[in-house]
Amino acid sequence: MSKYWSPIVSRLKPYVPGEQPRMANLVKLNTNESPYGPSQSALEAIRMAAGADLRLYPDPLALGLRQSIAERHGVMAEEVFVGNGSDEVLAHAFAALLKHDQPLLYPDISYSFYPTYAGLFGIDAVEVPLNDAFRIDIADYRRPSGAIILPNPNAPTGIGLPLAEIERLVAEHPEQPVVIDEAYIDFGGESAIPLVPKYANLLVVQTFSKSRALAGLRVGFAIGQRPLIEALERVKDSFNSYPLGRAAQAGATAAIKDEAWFEETRARIIATRAELTRELEKRGFEVLPSLANFVFARHPGHPGQTLAAKLRERAVIVRHFAKPRIEDFLRITIGTNEECGRLIAALDEIL
Ligand SMILES: *Cc1c(COP(=O)(O)O)cnc(C)c1O
User: Do 131 and 221 have their domain in common?
Assistant: First the structure.
């Protein structure tokens, strides 16, 4: 606290990202990064961008990247908005689209950046409880609201909604913007992007951080009809006209064109997820059905906090949330087969 702070600063509850510890021989399964490197062509494009042109500002419209994303997803470049990680895209969506007289709705167990952004932008929000199976029931969203945001698949549960359910939610709320945060969609879910031409209220947000293995580059995007995208552009150009540098634009453009690496790595992660789920279940864990690059699991005989601490002693880092209903769960990122093997070996010692 300081007398120099703007009044809002003392009221903020900043998001706490998963830690990035520097330990030798660490098995890092806490922040849903890809265990496989980025596309080689993306790395090459980033190296090429590191030249004398860096003295020049980047394209403020990021047209090349937006065009490539548009082609990949069958929309127009004008229907694509890009930002410095999907966290920034989400922040602009909160400011541009999600603040209304009626409350914003999102699940009670969900991405913990949502309450943070609601606080930052002074948005009145209502948390809608997941049902007893930790699932989103879209019937629970039939209540007065100004806007809705939810991740599909949800985080940290990993549970996905079928596209028909997403469409029903979007169709049932024609007066409200509905934002679907698809950070994990490429690991088995079905994207809502094909619904964009049909629904003026739908905004779909995706990221290069997970399935494209570029968390360090900071690139995310949103797809929606022009009026929603224009709202994001108005906020962006009132905040930072150049959110993506030259290296980020070049690297992400090359990454989205590398379909082969994308398919190979996500298939490996999906296969390892099935294997890890089986191994955890054999040891008595309850594992929620995941469509993401992580699993959410609890053991009836061991509190989550203790398990996380004991894994840490063995240089295996997973994510634990000290929150009601989920305090006994661990969120475990799908690593390589070798990393998941080391997790299982550590669990065998602990259990
Ligand atoms: C990881 C994640 C994001 C954002 O990631 P960026 O690295 O900022 O693109 C957004 N939503 C959810 C639910 C996530 O888990």
Answer: yes
